[in-house]
Amino acid sequence: MAGISVDDLFGFAGLIDDEERSIVETVRGFGAKRLRPHVAEWFEDGALPVRDLALELGELGLFGMHLDGYGCAGASATAYGLACLEAEAVDSGLRSFVSVQGSLSMYAIHAFGSDEQKDRWLPAMARGEAIGCFGLTEPDFGSNPAGMRTNARRDGDDWILNGAKMWITNGPVADVAVVWAQTDPDAGGRGIRGFVVPTDTPGFTANEIKHKMSLRASVTGELVLEDVRLPADAVLPGVQGMRGPLSCLNEARFGIVFGAVGAARDCLETALRYADDREVFGRSLGGYQLTQAKLADMALEVGKAFLLAMHLGRMKDAGAIRPEQISLGKLNNVREAIAVARECRTILGANGITLEYPVIRHANNLESVLTYEGTSEMHQLMIGKALTGYDAFR
């Protein structure tokens, strides 16, 4: 192609330092060599070689890379975001694997767990030898997790958990689940609490959800807890109430802010190559005004989304970011990414609906990304509350 890249158009090279550039190149290279040759097949088959990939991703240092100690890399939030961008440029399911492991499961244990919980699980999870999942969403409680029905009651020194969690990434293959449950304040529960649940505990089952049309290169399940007996030290001691799970969700949402840019960028780069190669009426498709208008508009949105992600990353590294600011990034970047994917599909024409090209796969995946970790409507309300001071969730 004779043209320049979106990165060059915006002059992005000066926005990242040498360490961040090295991480980008490492993840991008791993994606090109190990993931891209197989991801369309994984998507079509609805299967992912989770155990093998977990060890390889652990060796790369991607799991919990923004956490300190316990075998974690201790990288910056921005570097972690850039890694998520490169992972999602391959497939949203792969970024989701990294996010759930590091930003939900590991982060919950790292931020709120006991020393014993951290020592037992975090090093193995960082290496990819143990896989985690995060049990918050329920069949009837997604946007309103505080209404969860999963409960934990005391029985002597033990806890007994009952309930169900839905749409849990990694659930069917996890070794450990961080499960949030209602507890009885009169029994020392103090409201909603988190529990570290080894998945081989009697009464714990995980059923894989099949027939998905989105995030097919990702393992999703339902967790069922039937009189799951846990010792007293299974509870996360460092948090109570909704602050615990919501802070974990903010970590995962931050990864999505960057990840969505990766999916959009991959679609745009695919459309640019296709428009250059495809001849229509005897000339390159990329030489027509309507095509160039589409490409220009999409490049603008991808570039703005990246700038927003980088700005939020620097704010997070400075310890100055607020939840509603992460909502800004999640709302804008996912909304624009799915619009870019759909527009790129029009440039590819009929070829855009095949898995020979990544565009329809990204578009389908982004349908899930649009609604998980907070729907667009919920993020609009978070931003609206910040702007007006009024809580309009009810």
TrEMBL record:
Ranges where the Acyl-CoA oxidase/dehydrogenase middle domain occurs: 133-228
Pfam families: Acyl-CoA_dh_1, Acyl-CoA_dh_M, Acyl-CoA_dh_N
Domain Acyl-CoA dehydrogenase/oxidase C-terminal: 240-387
Keywords: FAD, Flavoprotein, Oxidoreductase, Transit peptide
Tree of life domain: Bacteria
Entries under InterPro entries matching the protein: Acyl-CoA_Oxase/DH_mid-dom (IPR006091), Acyl-CoA_Oxase/DH_mid-dom_sf (IPR046373), AcylCo_DH-like_C (IPR036250), AcylCo_DH/oxidase_C (IPR009075), AcylCoA_DH/ox_N (IPR013786), AcylCoA_DH/ox_N_sf (IPR037069), AcylCoA_DH/oxidase_NM_dom_sf (IPR009100), Glutaryl-CoA_DH_mitochondrial (IPR052033)
Acyl-CoA dehydrogenase/oxidase N-terminal domain ranges (all copies): 18-129
Similarity-based family: Belongs to the acyl-CoA dehydrogenase family.
Name recorded for this polypeptide: Glutaryl-CoA dehydrogenase
Taxonomic placement: Bacteria, Bacillati, Actinomycetota, Actinomycetes, Mycobacteriales
